[in-house]
Design brief:
The protein is α/β, with parallel strands linked by helices and 651 residues long. The protein is globular and about 70 Å long. The longest helix is centred in the N-terminal third of the chain and has 17 residues. The strands form 8 sheets. An 8-stranded mixed beta sheet has the order 12-11-8-6-7-14-15-23, with helices on both faces. A 7-stranded mixed beta sheet has the order 5-4-17-16-18-19-20, with helices on both faces. A 4-stranded antiparallel beta sheet has the order 21-22-24-25. Bound molecules: adenosine-5'-monophosphate-propyl ester. The site of adenosine-5'-monophosphate-propyl ester has 22 residues, from helix 12, strand 24 and strand 25.
Length: 651
């Protein structure tokens, strides 16, 4: 069954290469996950896994007490009475900021480095857990002084600066929710998210640095707020670049001015939240033009984030962990802002581009801070691989002990390069499959797992997955099918903000009783999962998730465009790239200049990552009789493949 809509990056094995790559016995035996297995009386991951599948609630409640402090224990681990609106740890009271920040202040981590931040220009800042707590406390007081209350949704649009982490933690500390919009998004994307979340307060910066250029965050925020139906009352501005910006005195406030008031250093109480209270919204692209605001919870989310980070990346007290993602994506939420701090880890956050001012920048950072664990994306590996083995070889990477990958299938060639040149054949690669929806890792290896390049290996503890046919039967042999999760998990999204029916329809209706992930996959003879690609109208560009419909509506918002279609086609570095087909309005003629203008227009509206690779002018588009654009036909044509069943094509 060929149901994939995306390029296949990781399904073939190279002949002659080893089938498995084994982590060292020492790493495996000393791992956090084996320590837990032994406590439970098991001698292998497999035995432990089987037990967690028989007793998932016991397992997850173990995790909830192993990694976290609760203000009040829960009554019920899992409440399935209103499926698929599952509830976890009901009756429990908790706040992730207590676990990630507050509790360290009175413990052994008080003076331990929590965060090492390096700017693109080379400035370095360090925060101990004690200082982190002060920053978060101050930021929380500032938010309270602006009238932010429990339950409010604060939109945050910042570059990769420490204040982004403080802002997120501060929002949750006072019981409000954050909706972080990635700093690479632009006006339309930001405006749509502000409006959907009804944010009265937006946090932004005067600008951000990326590739030695200023990203005009404030200018974009102003335009988005002006279009946001008068919703936004206050824009809190973090100073980063110091360049001139427009300032609306009745609406804009400088963070540093408010934060300087002595009252902001008074202790700000951390709100005690119900486990099922919503903690944050994170928008992601789906099959329609409106982004989905996925709702994550206060309790279950942190249980899974802490357990997966500890057991997959094996975080130990002396580790220096570096996740290269942006906090504006789920990877950054779970595995920068929250997970590492819950575990009391030391982590590195780097503000800028991997290749600025030279392609060795990442390896220089790894050497400088003695990074032991690096978690990144295939697109970054591919782009750095281009510069050759000599670049990483100039740096001392001997402290690295584990590597990680996320966001899209990693092609075996990139996997092997990362393993051989960066990890020096010593560091296993944790290829973690998960989604904004899942909140935490779902299919991932751990330090005991024999690895196959390009496969996320097997489900995490307590997670039961499968590959099913459209009819709901297990796919046979090596056939591809729909990737499903067979039972609820604690960090799962709880609903789609303002649209619970869309939550049911999108995830739980295609194969009733199963969560359908929107990915096609196959399971091999060893039970290893291979992700093939998206089956919906989502394109993964450099690991970023974009909806074809978003790109199409950005194109149609240009006065020259009557109709538009967007598809993803394989791209060597980006994994997939966006290609578009445009029907012009009368009075407009195709030209290279117009194509370029349209590419830039999409970039301006949605953000540079959404800028199409090509704009093709066409007289018509293949459509079904009901008027839906048949993107698969466009794609087949572009790839020179058979166009498949055309029986529904408009006559
Ligand atoms: O298609 C899968 C791909 O990324 C999708 C989720 O995207 P997003 O919500 O943006 O979250 C990305 C970060 C967790 C999935 O449906 N994907 C993610 N990780 C992998 C992957 N594909 C293959 N291998 C992975 N490790």
């Amino acid at each position: 069954m060929a149901i994939s809509n995306e390029s296949t990056a990781a399904t073939s094995e190279q002949s002659g290469a080893p089938k498995f790559y084994y982590p060292s016995e020492e790493l495996a035996q000393n791992s956090n996950i084996m320590a837990y297995a032994r406590e439970k009386g098991f001698s292998s991951f497999e035995e432990l896994y089987q037990w967690t599948i028989q007793e998932p609630q016991q397992f997850w409640s173990d995790m909830a007490t192993r990694f976290l402090e609760w203000y009040q224990p829960w009554n019920q681990v899992l409440d399935e009475s209103n499926a698929p609106f599952f509830k976890w740890f009901t009756g429990g009271k908790i706040n992730i900021v207590h676990n990630a920040v507050d509790r360290h202040v009175n413990g052994p981590n008080r003076d331990k480095t929590a965060l090492i931040w390096e700017s693109e220009q080379g400035e370095s800042r360090r925060y101990t857990y004690g200082q982190l707590a002060e920053e978060v406390n101050r930021f929380a007081n500032v938010l309270r002084s602006l009238g932010v209350q429990k339950g409010d949704i604060v939109t945050i649009y910042l570059s990769r600066v420490p204040e982004l982490l403080f802002a997120m933690l501060a929002t949750v500390k006072i019981g409000a929710m954050h909706s972080v919009v990635y700093g690479g998004f632009s006006i339309d994307a930001l405006q749509a998210r502000i409006v959907d979340a009804k944010s009265r307060v937006v946090i932004t910066g005067d600008g951000g640095w990326m590739n030695n250029k200023i990203v005009e965050l404030k200018k974009i925020t102003d335009a988005a707020v002006d279009e946001a139906q008068g919703l936004v009352e206050k824009v809190l501005v973090v100073r980063r670049t110091g360049h001139d910006i427009a300032f609306n005195e009745s609406r804009d406030v400088w963070y540093h001015e408010l934060a300087a008031q002595p009252a902001m250093d008074e202790p700000c109480a951390t709100e005690q939240m119900d486990a099922e209270d919503p903690m944050f919204l994170l928008y992601t692209s789906g099959s329609t033009g409106t982004p989905k605001g996925l709702v994550h919870s206060c309790g279950g989310y942190q249980v899974q984030v802490a357990a997966t980070l500890s057991f997959t990346f094996d975080i130990k007290p002396d580790d220096v962990y570096w996740c290269t993602a942006d906090p504006g994506w789920i990877t950054g939420h779970s595995y920068i802002v929250y997970g590492p701090f819950i575990l009391g880890a030391t982590q590195v956050v780097y503000e800028g581009a991997p290749t600025y001012p030279n392609p060795g920048r990442w390896w220089e950072i790894a050497q400088k801070y003695g990074v032991t664990i690096q978690y990144t994306a295939p697109t970054a590996v591919r782009s750095l691989m281009r510069f050759g083995d000599e670049v990483p070889r100039q740096y001392d990477l001997s402290k690295l002990r584990l590597l990680g990958s996320v966001g899209e299938p990693i092609n075996p060639e990139a996997w092997r390069w990362y393993y051989r040149v960066v990890g020096q054949e010593r560091c296993p690669i944790m290829d973690t499959w998960w989604q904004t929806e899942t909140g935490g890792f779902m299919i991932a290896p751990n330090p005991t797992t024999p690895l196959k390049p390009g496969s996320g290996t097997k489900p995490f503890l307590g997670i039961e997955a499968d590959v099913l046919t459209e009819e709901g039967q297990p796919a046979s042999g090596n056939d591809d099918g729909l990737l499903v999760i067979k039972r609820p998990w604690p960090a799962m999204l709880r609903t789609i903000h303002g649209d619970p029916q869309r939550y049911v329809d999108t995830y739980w209706s295609r194969l009733p009783g199963n969560y359908t992930a929107g990915d096609s996959a196959r399971k091999d003879e060893d039970g290893y999962y291979w992700i093939i690609g998206r089956i919906d109208d989502v394109i993964k560009v450099s690991g970023y998730r974009l909806g074809t419909a978003e790109v199409e509506s950005a194109l149609v918002s240009h006065p020259a465009v009557a109709e538009a279609a967007a598809i993803g086609l394989p791209h060597e570095l980006k994994g997939n790239a966006i290609h578009t087909y445009v029907i012009l309005r009368q009075g407009h003629e195709p030209s290279d200049a117009l194509a370029d203008e349209l590419r830039k227009h999409v970039g301006k509206e949605l953000g540079p990552i959404a800028r199409p690779e090509t704009v093709n002018f066409v007289p018509n588009l293949p459509k079904t009789r009901s008027g839906k654009i048949m993107r698969r036909v466009l794609k087949a044509r572009a790839l020179g493949l058979p166009e498949g069943d055309l029986s529904t094509l408009e006559g």
